[in-house]
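Exam prep: given the inputs below (a chain plus NAP), describe the expected output before reading on.
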Amino acid sequence: MSKAIQIQQYGGAETMQLVDLEVGAPGPGEVRIRHHACGLNFIDVYQRTGLYPNPLPLTLGMEGAGVIEAVGEGVSHLKVGDRAAYASNPPGSYSEVRVMPAKTVCKLPDGIAFDTAAGMMLKGLTAQYLLKRTRPAEGLHAGDFVLFHAAAGGVGLIACQWAKALGLQLIGTAGSAAKCALALEHGAVHAIDYSKEDFVARVKAITGGKGVKVVYDSIGKDTFDKGLECLRPFGLMACFGNASGPVAPFAPAILAAKGSLYLTRQTLFTHIATREVTQMMADELFAVVGSGAVKIRIDQRYPLAEVAQAHRDLEARKTTGSTVLMP
Ligand SMILES: NC(=O)c1ccc[n+]([C@@H]2O[C@H](COP(=O)([O-])OP(=O)(O)OC[C@H]3O[C@@H](n4cnc5c(N)ncnc54)[C@H](OP(=O)(O)O)[C@@H]3O)[C@@H](O)[C@H]2O)c1
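Solution:
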């Protein structure tokens, strides 16, 4: 049996219930993992509210770290007793123990603690694909300006550090002076408090009127239109989330009028569709964390049973960096 956090229906944080679930043996291609820590991500909110629908009842959670307890037929990259971590579909990491597909579960280097791993797999693999696999037409080179919204958040603080390591000039936005200070401390070259300042005007001033090559937008509704104004000709709008709500439908001709822009809406799950690519991306993440170039800040910890408070804090923009849930 495993304690787990389930929803029977979509709704607010109060819909999450602590339940006991039976956990069986792993089938072919699966492993059973006992979690030592689970990650909290904004996608958990989208899945809880039904913005991203899943079959119900649903055990939430997309990120975890722990020890492999059993290995199904055909799994060769993991064995019983291995320390491991993952970001993965289907949801289910808000639990003590679960059975899941082995494909996206990676062996964890000894130097990376379980809580660090639970705070970095989904967010760090996302930063990896955004900075290294989501390229503007003219490429991305050291010295280029990019704009990254919610720069003091979980994905944001990892992206600030990784962008700095790549030599990029990351301009971060964040919702308070304290959050802006955090983004600067972690490698952003400028930070804009978009709750008070016009980020379009600041970006134009910082870049000498030219604009940035890429806007990384996880806010959606509130920032999309203004983000287009920040791009230089042929620039890339890389949408990857909707913390303020989904972007409204719009006419593609707008992209022409703003300078022949490119638009993409990315999801991690396309990138980690195969074991090989997942491992390649994870190896890069383990390397930047192992080298100290990217430090994983766990600014909030909650017992798994108090997950409702964790969701409320995340939705109320009270968190910074990563948040982990302890089963
Ligand atoms: N597509 C993908 O592959 C992928 C993967 C991972 C994450 N994501 C997305 O990336 C974003 C960051 O994820 P995360 O888990 O690291 O979360 P997070 O950045 O730690 O938290 C979300 C942040 O968004 C900002 N925000 C702006 N408007 C908001 C609003 N109306 N309500 C709530 N927050 C608002 C807040 O920062 P400020 O107060 O500074 O504005 C808040 O702290 C999320 O949108 C998530 O869905 C996408």
